[in-house]
Amino acid sequence: MSGVAPVVVRACRGLLDAEAVSSRRLATGSRSLVYRVRLADGQGVVVKVYAATALRNALTEARVSAAAADFVAVPPVLAVGLVPSLGSTALITRDLGPVTLEQAVAEGRVPYRYALRRAVALLKAFHRIPASLPVPRRPFADHVASLARRCGSSTLLHIEPALECIASRISARRSVWCHGDVHFGNIVIAADGMDHLVDFPHIWHGPPEFDLAQTLTMTNALAPDDLHAVKRHYGTPVDTRLLTALVAFHTLRCWVHSTPHSRDQQLWAARFRALAARQPELFRNPARLTAGRTIR
Which stretches make up the Aminoglycoside phosphotransferase domain (predicted)? Predict the structure, then answer.
């Protein structure tokens, strides 16, 4: 079992009664790790391990996955529970393969606009999950407070007009279970060609515009024709003003969470300034932002 992460060994033994013979880390989050694992019987699985301190854990994600399965395709859950001796929780699902919609777009196998349509279709279906889903609810103010803790309240002043717009319009919108992180990388294309939605730790109860704005932001679908296409494919009426204000919020959040001095941070800084130039009414002092000043 050389090269197999110890936490993977414990999770597979304790929850599947199986031996892991290889593992490769796929993703690292602030409170979770994801591994692609090969078992001794040849079966491929994905093991997601949550830290004991995580607000949402594997048990919550399993409940969401079970509820979502009635509306969208999701990877089958094989086991979930506490990892023996660690206090962490783990979710083990069948491995549907390495191909994501993001990869298919990058390789030119799926046109970008068609991929965006597929992502919106998954969102529309996900938003049909009943309100009775047993997951703790979280007000939008918590998202703002979390961002403020990360970057400081002075940074939030840059999008104060956008936040005021959100506050004035969000309560009038219908609430749905928002996935919170639908982008091309979180859509796995199985061998049968079906799109499967993955990664549910960010679910919360809010307006559908929150999810739509997040998807627009993460896929850089911010041109007017992209916005119109998303609204058309979603079908249900969308509050465009709220949607664009939430795009400003998500863009700042992506910038703040990017690695300092990285290419990713430069990309989000450029997108933030481009958005300020295109929709200055959502920003405080947009001219200073578009002049290239750094947010502090």
Answer: 24-237
